[in-house]
């Protein structure tokens, strides 16, 4: 998991990319980490974003786009925001049923 205040910023899962080899390496890490936690009966509240943020703490991205490319509905969305996250509660997000 990622402790509050750990890392330089929060990276939303809605807007990731990169070179093929590095992206596939990251995807394999995320899949392995998720599988390991599920085997232990653990699931992160924000699921893949939690794993993505842990990965990016240890593998800082070469480029981080300005927040206008992917802002949050409540505080970073402005008239020039291209993509934004709709605010939702953990219950709304939870796919476990």
Please, what is the average pLDDT?
79
Structural class: mainly alpha
- Helicity, as a percent range: 25-40%
The count of helical stretches stands at 3
Kindly report how far apart the N and C termini lie: 22 Å
Order of helices and strands: HHEEH
Radius of gyration, whole Å: 14 Å
Overall geometry: globular
List the helices and strands and how they pair.
Elements: H1 20-39, H2 48-58, E1 71-72, E2 84-85, H3 90-93
Parallel strand pairs: 1-2
Explain what this protein looks like in three dimensions.
The protein is mainly alpha-helical and 97 residues long. The protein has helices at residues 20-39, 48-58, 90-93, and strands spanning 71-72, 84-85. The mean pLDDT is 79.
């Amino acid at each position: 998991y990622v402790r509050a205040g750990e890392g330089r910023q929060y990276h939303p899962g809605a807007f990731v990319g990169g070179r093929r080899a590095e992206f596939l390496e990251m995807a394999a890490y995320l899949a392995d980490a998720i599988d390991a936690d599920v085997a232990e009966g653990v699931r992160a509240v924000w699921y893949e974003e939690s794993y993505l943020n842990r990965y990016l703490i240890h593998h800082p991205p070469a480029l981080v786009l300005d927040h206008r490319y992917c802002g949050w509905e409540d505080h970073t969305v402005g008239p020039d925001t291209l993509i934004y996250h709709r605010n939702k509660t953990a219950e709304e997000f939870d796919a476990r049923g």
